[in-house]
Amino acid sequence: IPGKEMGKKEGAAVFFGEFYSDWIATLQTTLLPNLRRAVEAAAVAPTPLSVQIDALHRHLDLYYSALDRAAASDVSQCLFPAWRNSLERPFLWLGDLHPYLFSNLLRSFLDDGSEEEEEEEEEASSSRRAKIDRIECGLRLMVPALAARARDAQANFPTASAAAAEEELAGVLADANRLRRSVLADILAAATPRQSAAFLQSLAEFLVGFRDEKLLRKL
């Protein structure tokens, strides 16, 4: 993705929309195919798998850093993103995917009884599940708190200055992004390399799927 910095409010939504299109294109045409090939070759060469996991994780982190800068420029464009299509918008929470989606996606791999997990020691498997439980416990605390902050900022808008309200909402969105990044990092730390690869592949396919032209034409 070309190095881009968020502009001022005029045209900021258009600018970030271009950034997001470039970001999705890189995910679809480069990072996702590379991860798929690494998964197929992991039985004989596990090192490339970890390289591609790191590359896709960095790509996600790049997006959230850019989203933070966009929110600082104009938080309204991030809370009501014009660059998101009608398939994506129902999944959005404070500007992006709900963090519960990440933990639910990983849990689907832990609950499917894969051969790899069956071969693991029971203690290691239980420890991994306990880590996911702790991640979800943190979400149950943080998600309502962030939602309440957003509601309070919007409710106080008539009595507070517009600048103060925008600053608080930008802070809420930045904290929501920080939570999403933290959950992603915790998931990758808790999962095995194969589980991490499967998780990131499914997440990438989920994001890319929103841009399916055939599906969008049916709406």
How would you characterize this protein structure?
InterPro entries: Seed_Dev/Stress_Resp_Reg (IPR051886), TGA_domain (IPR025422). Residues 13-219 form the DOG1 domain. It comes from Genlisea aurea. This is DOG1 domain-containing protein. One of its GO terms (biological process) is DNA-templated transcription. By secondary structure, this protein is an all-alpha fold. It has one domain (6-217). 75% of the residues lie in helices and 2% in strands. It is built from nine helices and two strands. It has helices at residues 12-41, 46-73, 75-79, 99-110, 115-119, 122-155, 162-190, 193-209, 213-217; strands at residues 92-93, 96-97. Strands 1-2 form a two-stranded antiparallel sheet. Helix 2 (46-73) runs antiparallel to helix 7, helix 2 crosses helix 8 and helix 4 packs across helix 8. The longest helix is centred in the middle third of the chain and has 34 residues, at 122-155. The radius of gyration is 19 Å and the shape is globular. The two termini are 30 Å apart.
